[in-house]
Q: What sequence folds into this?
């Protein structure tokens, strides 16, 4: 998967990669030429006392060094551009794939691991690409070229190369094999700690309300300790690796000086050749060490690439239709025909044989006990989930035959738990209609009974909203979300218990204003408060995923036992009497 990702996302940057190869090649050749020039200065210039030769060769050596530095810098520049662009495109690919997921697909992975895979995992692969472009070309050329140049200087000492290099490779290979499972475990631990931290931040009010800080601290501490233990095991291998590599380098250097010194003393080798051989051996070992750094990164990057690939290879459970149908009219008529739905892995369906029609200009309310399937019923219309059987139709066309843009352009949903994005009030209101005018925003706020508190803010529409809308009250958050839906002016409004945080007076004013605003639209409301749904044209009573009764408020008071129980649970004893 690692090779597949690199191949797929590096294609647009092949010119940069070609430039990296060219400049790294030039830099490596120059670096290999420098020890030979140094040997010439020692053997030809210094030994003979030829000052002119020393200056000429030294100048050439300086020029080669400058070329080596310039080409190395340029190669790193192009390598960095290619690697950073690769990481950007890979992150974008993960993000686009995740945004194409249905709610079902997101639940399969979970939000914490998707965040980790789109950030930390991509970063690991990106760093491997960066290191690869900077060292991948130079390492083999330096290693092979160093061996060739060392053998040119003295063939008798070549056995030192054939001993030291395999020993270094064996040590590195052993460490890499040990690191692979630890890196995989480490990414899983990061997922877990991200999940716990996310839960604690989002649920901080619940934690404090039940005085669960010690328990949550211990839970986070446990996950933190597990991550620390794995990190320490990885660190212990790194601790072994660097001394081992250093030992091999130093022993190799001592062996060259020992055996080479004997050859110099016997007149079989010149001092310059010995110096050059030592430099070439060090270059070879440094090349192997650079390969070691790459090898150390490959296990973790490979694990991360597999995790990223799992996301990219998922086929979204909800597809765009191959032959989309354009509806002949756009009035907002909604029809459910014998709809059944079950969540993945559930033993029983959440909804069974649901059938009803909501006409333009009508308000249909859905009421029932907790867990009756009200939210699930609403979620099927905007295709957050697909039905198990039956059909959901919009303007006479099954929504599975409509493009998502057709659905979202005509259906606006205010969810049970309203969410605001970090930014300004204006930014949130224009989320569904970016070209909306200020007057349209204020009109929507007025209907949603939010205009007064927005005007009271210092910056009005430009007032800042924290992530999730945590810096406004629950009622204000609901009203802003309702206003955002009104700005889009859809044909169908879905309100999923969207008035629960409002007081009775505000709820009544909002419903009166909403009735005039949505006179030509289809409105479907999920409500727990009877006063919110009493004026609906049709009320559906859900129980265990089935419609057990339907009718107006007055009709259901006479005919539906379930509805009567719901009404009585919200009235005082005097009102019931």
A:
């Amino acid at each position: 998967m690692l090779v597949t990702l690199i191949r797929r996302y590096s294609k647009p940057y092949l010119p940069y990669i070609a430039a990296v190869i060219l400049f790294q090649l030039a830099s490596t050749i120059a670096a290999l030429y420098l020890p030979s020039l140094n040997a010439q200065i020692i053997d030809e210039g210094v030994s003979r006392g030829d000052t002119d030769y020393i200056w000429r060769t030294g100048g050439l050596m300086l020029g080669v060094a400058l070329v080596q530095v310039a080409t190395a810098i340029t190669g790193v520049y192009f390598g960095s551009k290619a690697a950073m662009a690769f990481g950007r495109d890979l992150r974008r690919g993960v993000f686009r794939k995740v945004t194409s997921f249905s709610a079902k697909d997101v639940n399969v992975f979970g939000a914490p691991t998707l965040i980790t895979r789109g950030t930390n995992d991509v970063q690991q692969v990106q760093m491997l690409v960066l290191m690869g472009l900077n060292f991948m070309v130079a390492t083999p050329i330096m290693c092979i070229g160093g061996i060739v140049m060392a053998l040119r200087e003295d063939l008798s000492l070549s056995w030192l190369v054939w001993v030291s290099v395999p020993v270094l490779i064996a040590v590195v290979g052993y460490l890499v094999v040990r690191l692979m499972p630890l890196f995989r475990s480490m990414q899983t631990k990061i997922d877990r700690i991200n999940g716990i931290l996310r839960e604690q931040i989002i649920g901080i009010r619940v934690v404090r309300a039940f005085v669960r800080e010690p328990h949550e601290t211990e839970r986070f501490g446990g996950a933190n300790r597990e991550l620390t233990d794995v990190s320490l095991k990885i660190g212990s291998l790194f601790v072994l690796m660097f001394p081992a590599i250093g030992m091999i380098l130093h022993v190799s250097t001592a062996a060259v000086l020992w055996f080479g010194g004997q050859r110099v003393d016997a007149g079989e080798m010149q001092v310059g050749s010995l110096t050059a051989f030592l430099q070439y051996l060090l270059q070879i070992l440094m090349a192997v060490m650079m390969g070691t750094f790459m090898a150390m990164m490959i296990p973790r990057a490979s694990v991360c690439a597999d995790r990223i690939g799992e996301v990219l290879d998922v086929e979204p459970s909800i597809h765009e239709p191959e032959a989309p149908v354009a509806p002949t009219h756009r009035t907002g008529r909604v029809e459910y025909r014998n709809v059944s739905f079950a969540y993945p892995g559930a033993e029983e369906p959440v909804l069974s044989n649901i059938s009803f029609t909501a006409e333009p200009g009508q308000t249909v309310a859905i009421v029932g006990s907790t867990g009756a399937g009200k939210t699930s019923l609403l979620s099927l219309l905007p295709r957050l989930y697909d039905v198990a059987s039956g059909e959901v139709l919009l303007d006479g066309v099954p929504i599975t035959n409509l493009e998502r843009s057709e659905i979202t352009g005509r259906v606006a949903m205010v969810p049970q738990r309203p969410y605001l994005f970090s930014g300004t009030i204006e930014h949130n209101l224009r989320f569904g209609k970016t070209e909306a005018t200020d007057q349209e925003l204020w009109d929507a706020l007025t209907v949603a009974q939010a205009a007064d508190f927005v005007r009271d803010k210092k910056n009005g529409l430009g007032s800042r909203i924290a992530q999730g809308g945590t810096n406004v009250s629950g009622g204000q958050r609901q009203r802003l979300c309702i206003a955002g839906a009104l700005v889009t002016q859809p044909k169908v409004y879905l309100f999923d218990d969207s008035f629960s945080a409002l007081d009775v007076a505000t709820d009544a004013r909002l419903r009166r204003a909403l009735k005039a605003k949505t006179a030509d639209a289809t409105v479907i409301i999920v409500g727990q408060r009877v006063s919110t749904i009493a004026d609906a044209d049709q009320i559906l009573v859900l129980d265990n995923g089935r419609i057990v009764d339907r009718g107006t408020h007055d009709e259901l008071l006479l005919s539906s036992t379930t509805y009567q129980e719901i009404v009585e649970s919200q009235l005082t004893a005097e009102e019931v009497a």
